[in-house]
Design a protein that fits this description.
Distance between the termini: 61 Å
Structural class: alpha/beta
Helix content: 40-55%
Strand content: 15-25%
Radius of gyration: 23 Å
CATH architecture of the largest domain: 3-Layer(aba) Sandwich
Length: 427
Amino acid sequence: MKRSMLDRVLAGRVKRGRLKLTYASGRVAAFGEPAEGFPDVAVRFTDDNVPRDIVLDPRLGAGEAYMDGRMVMERGGIMELVQLVLGNNPWEGKGKLLAPTYPVRVARQIAFAWRSFNKPSTARRNVAHHYDIGNELYKLMLDSEHMQYSCAYWSHDGMTLGEAQEAKLAHIAAKLAIEPGNTVLDIGCGWGGMAIYLARKYAVTVHGITLSQEQVALARERAEEAGVADKVRFELVDYRELDGRGVTYDRIVSVGMFEHVGTPQYETFFRTCYNLLDPDGVALVHTIGRMGGPSWTDAFTDKYIFPGGYIPALSEAITRSEKMKLIASDVETLRLHYAKTLRAWYQRCMEHKDEIVAMFDERFFRMWTFYLAGATAAFESGSMCNYQIQYARNRRALPLTRGYMEANERALLGAEEERREKMLLGS
């Protein structure tokens, strides 16, 4: 029997682990061999167009087929399927990842370049698309302690999601070298987790800004509940609007927001940070990043998840920030931390499937879990990572060595670290 184009593609890419594929015609194809650490998955297509859609654009084609119920998981879940395909073709390997056809790639680059200008009105629309779908979904998916929708910091085995997110907050706060009386700007404050944490741990005032109405409303509630409403102010405003107010901050932190800035606005973002930062101030940008060179956002993510979003290569961030006289005083690459975080979110979504389906519908649930599964595989096998870039305007603003970071982090997490060390010694 003649092999399809998809058969040939999968035969070259699935070597370890098993994939059973049943076409709409009833024909069955099998790929790979059992291998430790690689899943055994069975998939069924319900119409004849699915193979073509996947070959033309793998991520968008597979994503839409799964969302619409035209690609059905019969053994294993969508997480296992994506893990199987990408795990066989790691970014570090010699093989090339499956890419869209040339016409699709060119059309996407042109369309994405146009959308990535990300004017303030567009930015508000894009943020609302993802973050204003309702706080209840995020309450089910994220940690209850801090509601952090960004990469956690898994400093040791056995951590809960909440513990890993608190460790992330401490890791970032330690790098900010905060001093009593500092004023802090949190760009893209989300549901207020970082701002509330800093207000509770330090004698500082924090100004958190976001473009999401849902986020700012809940952030204010959470600050009241935490007893820090007098130290934290949340505002619905674009970061670009702050530049003309004539105010500066001792510290600026931005976690998980730079991905929404858009490459044409990078210089504007860093110029604004420079102008808003005190001459002796310190800033920290935590962002998803690419371990390779510049690229573009895949069509599924751009269409359904983060319209106008873009994951920067480190070179893109550094090149733009250095033009604004911001000194990249420290850079850290978090390689697998987000993969662990995404798996925790995926698990929580699976546990709350009925509630999420009741909020939206089955199609939304499949879209959302496909997004989480694809993102997980991108961090486990693809080119994605996280960067934490510390900036200073003055070369003398920070100690000469990194020891202060570790000392600050230990002070923030001291009680928990001491308890863990005693447990380890006791064992």
